[in-house]
Amino acid sequence: MAPHKAPDSTRRSDRSRRAIHDAALALVGEVGYARTTIEGIAARAGVGKQTIYRWWPSKAAVLMDAFLETAARQAAEAAGAGGAETGGTYEIPDTGDLAADLKLVLRATVDELNDAATEAPMRALAAEGIVDPALGAQFVENLLEPQLQLYVTRLRAAQDAGQVRADIDPRVALELLIAPLTHRWLLRTLPLTHAYADAVVDHALGGLLPRAGA
Amino acid sequence: MAPHKAPDSTRRSDRSRRAIHDAALALVGEVGYARTTIEGIAARAGVGKQTIYRWWPSKAAVLMDAFLETAARQAAEAAGAGGAETGGTYEIPDTGDLAADLKLVLRATVDELNDAATEAPMRALAAEGIVDPALGAQFVENLLEPQLQLYVTRLRAAQDAGQVRADIDPRVALELLIAPLTHRWLLRTLPLTHAYADAVVDHALGGLLPRAGA
Amino acid sequence: MAPHKAPDSTRRSDRSRRAIHDAALALVGEVGYARTTIEGIAARAGVGKQTIYRWWPSKAAVLMDAFLETAARQAAEAAGAGGAETGGTYEIPDTGDLAADLKLVLRATVDELNDAATEAPMRALAAEGIVDPALGAQFVENLLEPQLQLYVTRLRAAQDAGQVRADIDPRVALELLIAPLTHRWLLRTLPLTHAYADAVVDHALGGLLPRAGA
Amino acid sequence: MAPHKAPDSTRRSDRSRRAIHDAALALVGEVGYARTTIEGIAARAGVGKQTIYRWWPSKAAVLMDAFLETAARQAAEAAGAGGAETGGTYEIPDTGDLAADLKLVLRATVDELNDAATEAPMRALAAEGIVDPALGAQFVENLLEPQLQLYVTRLRAAQDAGQVRADIDPRVALELLIAPLTHRWLLRTLPLTHAYADAVVDHALGGLLPRAGA
DNA sequence: ATATAACCGAGACGGTACGTCGGGTCTTGCA
DNA sequence: TGCAAGACCCGACGTACCGTCTCGGTTATAT
Predict the structure, then answer these.
(1) What are the strands, taking DSSP E only, across chain B?
(2) Cβ of B11 near strand F (distance < 7 A)
(3) Using the 8-state DSSP alphabet, how is residue D10 labeled?
(4) N or C: lower Cβ tally within 10 Å for chain B?
(5) CA/C1' separation A131–E12 (Å)
(6) At what angle do helices B170-187 and A194-206 cross, to 10 degrees?
(7) What is the mean pLDDT of residues A21-29?
(8) In chain C, which residues have pLDDT < 50?
(9) Is the pLDDT of residue A74 over 90?
(10) Region for residue C84 given its phi and psi (left: phi exceeds 0; alpha: psi -120 to 50; beta: otherwise)
(11) CATH number of B12-82
(12) How far apart are CA A155 and CA A164, in angstroms?
């Protein structure tokens, strides 16, 4: 199990790391994931191929890293800017009106998913994660799950406030809200709009069955 | 457009077509989608590479075709066998108990998705469709949408019977039911079980908000 | 040793045969021998590939046939025109002046070899014959040897007339005259000119050694 | 011109170069030129195809290189061995008896041409050079012309010694001697023997015309 | 202050697969 | 049955990238 020469990360060139991230994201955006190659990234970044292979195990890993870095930077900026993020990464607002809060957040999510700039690499990464379990786990753990936890938090708060039934499992509830958006985005079955986000919230909150009082 | 010599499909070898389908499915199952090559499919099928390139534009298209063929055959058999399918392709039962009917069908879906035999090619196809819009559209149109329509039908019947509120949009409702399963399957966030299917049905039908009468 | 279905040559389409010859010669002239393909010949001749494979064993054979046909036609025309040919195929003149007669014929040969129109296919055929003994034998027997025999005849006549030494072997003598031209043409060592033809005749007739009487 | 990335020849692998030469010569000898493929050479040499394409433009060029290398090595060995070569590459002997010297050398040439081991690749190269002017020029310049110059030297010496007429053009004379051998070898008209070499020398030296003193 | 060890750019290397071309065989439908 | 058409299996083409491997060259500690 010789680790086969672990490179010394203290001597790693930050300049190269950044250039590789940038080149990878740019190329995926321009020509798509499939036609993005390690050689192409290296050439574009002005970097030797070995420098990529030394630090990443695969093309997908490079891209993932680039994403995580971007996400981290954005989070840092958000935190720096102080305020609670909307569609971003920070926290779901709690105005007391659960429906309104969820619609706000899910509309922001819709906008984020519909953003042309990030769509290609995002899809590529998701697709790769679907096929490659290890990468998928990383994707979920680092990018998706933190977001989902925000919903858990918000829903628990709503339960505590009596706005959501106590026998609801927040994890299931959150998937009822999030999954339909993901579904439309990934599979492109129907357009992903604000109206749809609203409808999802309304249907999920209200349920399908006739209400006793109605 | 691109005339580029359309081959004469009346002279196409059915033997080869079938062999290619079989080889493609077998290889994807055995070594995974990424390591399945056109060359490998051709060799396994005992066929010239050109025969694949003559009739399909890509590896994904071959696989899609193989799936459609399989699905069509199963549908034909199901129709021949007469009965209403459960997890299959035919029809959602209507016993009058919507929750029970949905749980039955969704549990079957869970089993289908968890089937080790079809998982690899199914994931591969889905992933490819996520990145390639044309393929994705074909995937949705031919494999997914027909299934979804069954839910629309069943939900409308439930509405007519007063078991579902009239202001519910069946399309949205169905996505509330299906999307969470798809979500767990594609992203592998948490295990996809019968219990989860049941929970989804219960949460979706009942809604998150406290019921007036409760 | 079943001849594997000998085709019935009485039912052969003369139209196709000619079209194939023409297409073959045209293509070799236009794109060169190497880039001339059986498929290309068939397409150009408006003929099925099988029609070529039915009657010829190889691309070279088609070309050879085309040449023989052309040569035969020219010979027929020459014979019809009555006169003795010069550089052609018929007969070497005998004016009593051997040197002059040979120069006349060899100059005509030079012109023939330098003819741009026939050069490409001629070279191709020669080259193919150099590598493929069977084809080479055909080439020699049908195209070259008949020409060489004319020299034998003329040289014997010269011997009979006392213009050439009796101990000369006409076969060797003829090769002394012809081979240098062929050599320059095939290997492109130096330009192939009338002056060279004359020089070859002079050197061969006079020999290299000092003449006793000189 | 064609920038197209010139490879850095200082980093070229000598091991590969040699292996490719050897494989090429071996294959041409074993299966003939036409059935020798780049792919086959690469496989036999244990080399990637790209390594061949990186350094040579064509199969013929590989073979030519292999020949030149072999010839150069033999020349070096001959030079090292010190002595004057016979059929080889070094020098035509001058014993004062021109006829005998020429017969010696031409007989050696006959043996060389009849050598079964080198015949196939030699013919292939010659044939390729006949069709491809660039390759032919290389063939002539590097392999043929150096040999021919030896004859020029020897014939001039003979002229100086009064053994050959002063009005003889050594270049034409040499072709009178060499071309007939080449002719028989390339076109396989008649067997190429020592006796023929002798006859060519005798006919060329003595000439065809009756000698004054005879 | 200088060795000496790493990362780094560059790119040649042995490979695998690509998508295309053409070879030679076989089948179909027309004359 | 000959023929035009062209699908078929196959082998090779020349190219693109893979991941590994040298090669100098530049840093950047550790003597």
Answers:
(1) none
(2) yes
(3) G
(4) N
(5) 33
(6) 90
(7) 93
(8) 1-4, 82-88, 214
(9) no
(10) beta
(11) 1.10.357.10
(12) 7
Same topology, domains A14-81 and A86-208? Answer is: yes
Task: List chain A residues with CB under 8 Å of B130.
Answer: 123, 126-127, 130, 186-187
Contact C169, D166 (CB under 8 A): no
CATH level 3 topology of C86-214: Tetracycline Repressor; domain 2 (1.10.357)
Angle formed at CA A92 by CA A74 and CA B187, multiple of 5 degrees: 70
At position B140, the amino acid (one-letter code) is: V
- Give C-chain residues touching D148 at CB under 8 angstroms: 189
CA of A15: nucleotide with nearest C1': E8
Q: How far is the CA of A8 from the C1' of F28 (A)?
A: 13
Residues 69-88 of C with CB under 7 A from strand F: none
Instruction: Say how far apart CA B96 and CA D197 lie, in whole Å.
Output: 108
> Which residue of A163, A175, A192 is the best one to mutate when testing the B interface, meaning the one whose CB has the most B CBs within 10 A?
A175
Q: What is the value of pTM for the model shown?
A: 0.85
Distance between B136 CA and the closest CA of chain A, angstroms: 7
Buried b (16+ CB within 10 A) or exposed e, A109-140: bbeebeeeeeebbbbbbbbbbbbbeebbebbb
Residue B47 approaches strand F within 7 Å at CB = yes
CATH 1.10.357.10 fits A86-208, yes or no: yes
Four-way CATH pick for C11-83: 1.10.10.10, 1.10.10.60, 1.10.357.10, 3.90.1150.10: 1.10.357.10
- What are the domain boundaries of chain A? 14-81, 86-208
- The number of residues making up chain A comes to 214
Residue among C129, C139, C183 minimizing CB distance to D183? C183
The pLDDT value recorded for residue B124 is 87
Q: How many CB pairs under 8 A join C and D?
A: 171
B144-201 pLDDT per residue, tens: 999 999 999 999 999 999 999 999 999 999 999 999 999 999 999 999 999 999 999 9
CB D197 within 8 A of CB D106: yes
Share of chain A above pLDDT 90, in %: 69
Distance from CA of A184 to the nearest CA of B (A): 9
B10 CB neighbours strand F below 7 A: no
Q: Which residues of B95-111 are buried (b: 16+ CB within 10 A; e: fewer)?
A: eeebbebbbbbbbbbbe
Touching B (3+ Cβ pairs <8 A), the chains are A
Angle (nearest 5°) at CA C14 between C11 and C16: 105
Q: Which of A27, A186, A22 is closest to A113 using CA atoms?
A: A186
Residues of chain D found within 8 Å of residue C190, distances taken between Cβ atoms: 171
- Give the right CATH number for B86-209 from 3.40.50.300, 3.30.365.10, 3.10.129.10, 1.10.357.10: 1.10.357.10
Rounded CA–C1' distance between B35 and F8, in angstroms: 26
Of all nucleotides, the one whose C1′ comes closest to residue B48's CA is: F9
CATH 1.10.357.10 fits A14-81, yes or no: yes
Burial D68-93 (b: 16+ CB within 10 A, else e): eeeeeeeeeebeeeeeebbbbbbebb
pLDDT at residue B213 in the model: 56
The angle at the Cα of B45, spanning B39 to B51, to the nearest 5 degrees, equals 65
Q: How far is D20 from chain C (nearest CA, A)?
A: 22
pLDDT at B88: 46
| Contact: C205, D208; criterion CB under 8 Å | yes
Which of the two residues, B84 and C161, has the higher pLDDT score?
C161
pLDDT at D161 over 50: yes
- State yes or no: pLDDT of A138 exceeds 70: yes
Chain C residues whose beta carbon lies within 8 Å of the beta carbon of residue D145: 189
Q: Domain D85-206 carries which CATH code?
A: 1.10.357.10
* d(CA A214, C1' F25) / Å: 80
